[in-house]
Amino acid sequence: MFKLTKPAFIAALLSLLLMLPMFGICQISVPEWVKDIGGPNGSSSVPSAVVNDSQNNIYITGIFSGTVDFDPTAGVHELNSVGSFDTYLAKYTTDGNLIWAVSVGGDGIDQANSMTIDNDGNPSISGQFDSGQMDADPGPGVHNLTNNGGSDAFIIRFTTNGAFSWATSIGSSGTEYGGKIMADNQGNVIEVSQFQGTVNVGNKTFTAQGNFNGLMVKFDAAGHVTWAIDLKDNNNSEAHSCSVDKNNNVIVSGTFSSNVNFNPLGAAHNLNGNGVSTFLAKYTPAGQLIWVKAIKGDVVNNNTNVCVNSNNDIYI
Q: Which InterPro entries match (predicted)?
């Protein structure tokens, strides 16, 4: 019978303990379930955002064309696009079973880029549309958003049952892109975007300097503009992502090139991008700048993302 000496036993035990982390790394995670959303040849569906509510229901938004069945079970729930691409919003249980699915759109390309859920489970989506008119009401009612030229940015808010709540658009004769959207714990919605030309936001008018200007807008739960901030840049500035902390402070990231006043609602606070820089800024719920940081370099990341954890730590 083979017998290990004490030193050999200790060496073998240490070797086994050292190998255990490798066994954990090499394990392949198996998903609890996988669902498919699709349609026949010529149809397509592309997701752009997924979030969950406090009951762990799953919301998905994106774009689709043709006829798509949004029920991944044996049941059928088909939506038909009225343009080349329409925006869809679907809600599923934690087990992946369809609760409801709706769509909005016009005769062109209408694209959702981001989604957020408030504390009551009401979803809001943001994006841009190039249809002449986009019906933002997925029900029998009509709520048309009219395009001003190019692509216009939009926000649409729904109830937890998928019914229309309110919608608004921001547009000019140029191009506007709707970026990240986030709800705070009071149901307010903050959207960041970029715009060209002259846009009207609430009772304010902003005219872009340079190519694009970054724009931040806060809406109350009824869709009224609370405040708006234009990051004027003679060269180019863009607001890409936003988040909120547990105190409803707003954190925004994006890029800027030249001299920008990051506190237009308070005492001016100017930074210069010196060519191209990424910015990270924190604002009070009233839109007053708390601080702003610049990450300087000659490489631009046009898809910056920012999030905040329960300790108000910020990750970019």
A: Motility_Chemotaxis_Reg (IPR052918)
